[in-house]
Amino acid sequence: MAAALQAHDSTNSFSDGAHDGVPKATSSLPSKEPASDSEVVAVAKRRKFSLAYMQRIVREADACMEPGAIGALLRREGLYSSHLSKWRLQVAAGEAASGPNKKRGPKPCPVKAVDRRVANLELANEKLVKQLQRAQLIIGAQKKLCDLLGLPSEGELP
């Protein structure tokens, strides 16, 4: 009898997704379709601010007199207070005029750059010497061939 009930339950299908007033567990799961408008950026990208923008924000922040006005400015622009403090120091020190986006990483060593240049020039020189030797061999072979065939050489041409 239990087998008959199981067979009866497996053959019945309900269009409303419920069985005896209990909803199916799968009916409450979200759809497996990917969300078309995700708010997460796929690849993080460092923001870069122009010099004019930084100076404008510093001027606007300095002009704020009411309590909470600077916070409102930062929220409106999507900035952090650390941005404002660094930009104020740069503007005061005059570093902002030279450019806010300094190249990151270790500074290039001029001695190593000269050594690399010398090594590249030596390789190029070796390559050219080999090409010259090959060309001289070919020219020598052509001269011998002209002598064997009795053709006039370059100096004998009118």
Structure report:
It is built from six helices and two strands. By secondary structure, the protein is mainly α. The chain starts with a helix and ends in a 9-residue tail after the last helix. The longest helix is centred in the C-terminal third of the chain and has 40 residues, at 110-149. The relative contact order is 0.05. The chain has helices at 2-11, 51-63, 69-77, 81-93, 95-98, 110-149; strands at residues 18-19, 22-23. Among the domains are: 51-98, no CATH class; 110-158. Strands 1-2 form a two-stranded antiparallel sheet. Helix 2 crosses helix 4. The chain is rod-shaped.
Question: What are the defining features of this structure?
Answer:
158 residues, two-stranded antiparallel ribbon, 3% strand
Q: How would you summarize the topology of this molecule?
A:
Blueprint: H1 2-11, E1 18-19, E2 22-23, H2 51-63, H3 69-77, H4 81-93, H5 95-98, H6 110-149
Antiparallel strand pairs: 1-2
Point out poorly predicted stretches.
12-18
Tally the helices: what do you get?
6
The N- and C-terminal alpha carbons lie at a distance of: 119 Å
User: Widest sheet: strand order?
Assistant: 1-2
Secondary-structure element order, N to C: HEEHHHHH
General shape: rod-shaped
Total strand segments: 2
> Pairing-aware structural class of the strands and helices?
mainly alpha
